[in-house]
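Example 9 (inverse folding). The structure is encoded as follows.
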């Protein structure tokens, strides 16, 4: 019986597999009275990829793509570059992160600052893997009690 229980728990662990966090849709907000970059983008910390970039810089240039890593986002359009540098690495947890920006062309650079935030966190829901392990454990306990009662 002990071998069967161990096998059931091992199978439940394999079924659950590895889980990944959901990429966060970040929103840029600013405190600079003379303007700041605004808009949204999606960053996935698991794959280190930016997507769905919709950012407008201080020069009112819309940017629709960008690249970088967890600490910076670089965008360019029409020969004008907008760079965002985050005070700490972006994660899939969505903790607000402050940023500084620089946007410029022909040696002229405009600087700004603000915060990257995510929308309110979704309601937590138990993962299917957690429910699978709970179910396997309850079945195992039931089978052990049944065997003790009949044996």
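The amino acid assigned to each position is listed next.
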């Amino acid at each position: 019986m002990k071998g069967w229980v161990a096998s059931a728990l091992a199978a439940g662990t394999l079924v659950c597999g590895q889980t990944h966090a959901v990429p966060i849709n970040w929103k840029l907000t600013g405190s600079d009275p003379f303007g700041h970059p605004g808009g949204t983008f999606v960053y996935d910390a698991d794959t280190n990829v930016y997507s769905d970039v919709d950012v407008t810089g201080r020069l009112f240039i819309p940017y629709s793509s960008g690249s970088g890593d967890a600490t910076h986002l670089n965008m360019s359009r029409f020969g004008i570059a907008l760079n965002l540098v985050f005070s700490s690495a972006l994660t899939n947890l969505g903790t607000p992160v402050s940023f500084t920006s620089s946007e410029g062309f022909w040696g002229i650079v405009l600087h700004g600052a603000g915060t990257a935030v995510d929308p309110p966190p979704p309601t937590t829901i138990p993962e299917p893997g957690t429910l699978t392990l709970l179910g396997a454990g309850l079945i195992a306990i039931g089978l052990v009690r049944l065997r003790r009662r009949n044996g």
